[in-house]
Design a protein that fits this description.
- Its main location: cytoplasm.
- It holds the Pfam family UvrC_RNaseH.
- The chain is an alpha+beta fold.
- Helices cover 44% and strands 18% of the residues.
- Strands 14, 15, 16, 17, 18, 19 and 20 form a seven-stranded mixed sheet that branches. The chain has a six-stranded mixed sheet with strand order 5-11-10-9-12-13, with helices on both faces. The protein has a four-stranded antiparallel sheet with strand order 1-4-2-3.
- The radius of gyration is 36 Å and the shape is extended.
- The termini are far apart.
């Protein structure tokens, strides 16, 4: 396609045809690229129209010194050409997707016995690339599924026929644990290997239906041949596929291939979410921000996002749905704004993601002094709390080796420790190391006291532990009649999972999230406080035992001495007069002789 140049004064001479126009400044720098159904009318609108033109557009028009156009066959061709030019040159007045990530792909190599592995570098000739994936987690889920179903090798050996024939290799651990069938030693023929590769390709393309039919057929054939062990083998493969698909199923499986977009905007930016649907499952989700340059409408911004995201993620879907209509119609794009049914629900889901992304961006751009409230708002969002968690209380048990069971409660107000509100608990009603019963006791005691004193409940209760500890705490709240009045969660240490009452599946907050770090900080503080108290109790009990072993000295006397002198060592160092001031002359002499053993007597 040949580009033609025009001076600014000759804009009225442009043809009345579809195409792409480019504006250059005095330094011959490309500053804007646009598409048009009619180049003549569109370009003229910049120079003739004055009313309603915003300041940014007026500033751009003042910079224009040269116009170049490229005529194309259709407006849709103009749209694609415009997108390619913007992506390549990035003119300063064009909308940009704010996204500096390099996305991961899965590469299926074009060597004998192909391998499948992640990469961020696309090199022509290495093989077939699948993706890009919007997240490493999503890519790893697909890779893990394929490796659990198919026996695809992970080694880097050259498995050309001559090398295998020469017996250069020996099978590795992957063969012995059943993850590989040993093609390196010629134990698997390449034709059988490639059958598995073909099935894996369907999964990589999002077509889970084909491998499901394949494994179902194999399972039935094995069962009919009375090969029940082999039938069970294929049944396990089928269940893995169905489990994976169930995790992503959000719509009617009859929705085969669909692109869903949701847009939410403000004065400065638009936030667009893209959901890729295959066979009723979300196989890709991505949200981007578009900074407004010339007060573009939501329709213009949405169209820009549709073209660029579909191009970026190699989507060829013939159907697109969104929450707002496009301002222009394009041949080849079957576009709709659904009003009812599953497609409308998908658009609502996409819009929900766009709104959440916008909220995250606005929270992240807050000023430094608002950091604590930003974290609390993030926590409120992550946990779907009705109120900002300004007051959080966290409980933890401590009974090392089953001795001296104690517990602690820490209080955080405005995201900061409120040390004066911390509480220690001696476990009174539980015999032996029983974390669940202990948790029920301390939570019950704490909020029974709160209700008695008519003090306000916290905005969030955190329990250190998983489902068991959480259920015990919930029982205590139910017995007090306040369950449901205050949100309560449990945090399990091993995977840092968040548990909600009566919910079988935990919530996984991003490990880098400030809200998760706040919960961890509160949990760790409760643990520290409980451990410190436990050590004090053990130490006190040890000293009490030493003192109560003295004939004539009981627990009350021992406690008086420890409370006054603070440590056993100071009791040993005290003279008999100091001891007598606390417990009297007779008991002082007994303690003095027992802890000193030097026979000195007499009270001065």
């Amino acid at each position: 396609m040949q580009a033609s140049s025009y001076s600014v004064e000759d804009y009225h001479s442009l043809p009345d045809l579809p195409g792409v126009y480019k504006y250059f400044n005095a330094e011959n720098e490309l500053i804007y690229v646009g598409k048009a159904k009619s180049l003549k009318k569109r370009v003229a609108s910049y120079f003739v129209k004055t009313l309603g033109i915003n300041y940014k557009t007026k500033r751009m028009v003042k910079e224009i010194r040269k116009i170049e156009i490229t005529i194309v066959d259709t407006e849709f061709d103009a749209l694609l050409l415009e997108n390619n030019l913007i992506k390549k040159i990035q003119p300063k007045y064009n909308i940009m997707l704010k996204d500096d990530k390099t996305y991961p792909y899965l590469l299926l190599t074009n060597e004998p016995f192909p391998r499948l592995f992640p990469t961020r570098r696309m090199i022509t000739g290495r093989g077939t690339y699948f993706g890009p994936f919007a997240s490493v987690k999503g890519m790893n889920n697909v890779l893990e599924l394929i490796r659990s179903i198919f026996t695809i090798r992970t080694c880097r050996l050259d498995l050309s026929p001559p090398k295998i024939k020469e017996k250069k290799y020996k099978v590795c651990l992957e063969y012995h644990i059943g993850n590989c069938l040993g093609p390196c030693e010629g134990l698997q023929v390449e034709s059988d290997y490639m059958k598995e590769i073909e099935q894996a390709k369907h999964i990589l393309k999002g077509n889970l239906g084909v491998p499901k039919i394949h494994f179902k057929k194999k399972m039935q054939e094995a069962a009919e041949s009375l090969a029940f062990e082999r039938a069970h083998y294929f049944k396990n493969k089928l269940e893995l596929l169905e489990k994976y698909q169930a995790k992503s199923m959000v719509a009617n499986p009859a929705i085969h291939d669909l692109d869903v977009f949701g847009i939410e905007s403000d004065e400065k930016s638009a936030y667009v979410n893209f959901l890729k649907i295959k066979n009723g499952a979300v196989i890709l989700t991505k949200t981007v921000e578009l900074k407004k340059k010339l007060d573009e409408t939501d329709g213009e911004l949405l169209l820009t996002a549709i073209i660029r995201l579909r191009d970026q993620f190699n989507s060829e879907s013939l159907e697109i749905i969104a929450n707002i209509p496009l301002e222009e119609e394009f041949e080849g794009l079957n576009f709709a704004v659904p009003k009812i049914g599953d497609k409308k629900k998908l658009v609502e889901l996409s819009l929900k993601n766009a709104k959440y992304y916008k909220k995250e961006k606005l929270l992240a751009s807050g000023e430094v002094q608002d950091k604590k409230n930003r974290v609390l708002r993030q926590l409120q969002s992550d946990l779907s709390l009705k109120e900002l968690p300004m007051h959080i209380e966290c409980f933890d048990n401590s009974n090392i080796q089953g001795t001296n069971p104690v517990a602690s409660m820490v209080s955080f107000i405005n995201g900061k420790p409120a040390n004066k509100e911390y509480r220690h608990f001696h476990i009174k009603t539980v015999t032996g190391p029983n974390d669940f019963a202990s948790m029920k006791e301390i939570v019950g005691r704490r909020y029974h006291r709160i209700l008695e004193d008519a003090k306000p409940l916290p905005n969030l209760i955190v329990v250190d532990g998983g489902k068991g500890q959480l259920s015990s705490a919930v029982e205590a709240l139910k017995e007090l009649g306040i369950y449901g009045q205050v949100p309560i969660i449990g945090i399990a240490k091993r995977l840092e999972e968040i548990y909600f009452p009566e919910d079988n599946y935990p919530l996984h907050i991003d490990k880098k999230s400030e809200s998760l770090r706040l919960i961890q900080k509160i949990r760790d503080e409760a643990h520290r406080f409980a451990i410190t108290f436990h050590r004090q109790v053990r130490s006190k009990n040890a000293f009490n035992t030493k003192l109560t072993d003295i004939e004539g000295i009981g627990e009350n006397t021992a406690n008086k001495l420890l409370k006054h002198f603070r440590s056993f060592k100071k009791i040993q160092e005290a003279d008999i007069n100091a001891l007598a001031e606390v417990v009297g002359k007779d008991k002082a002499e007994k303690v003095y002789l027992a802890v000193r053993g030097d026979g000195e007597k007499g009270v001065g």
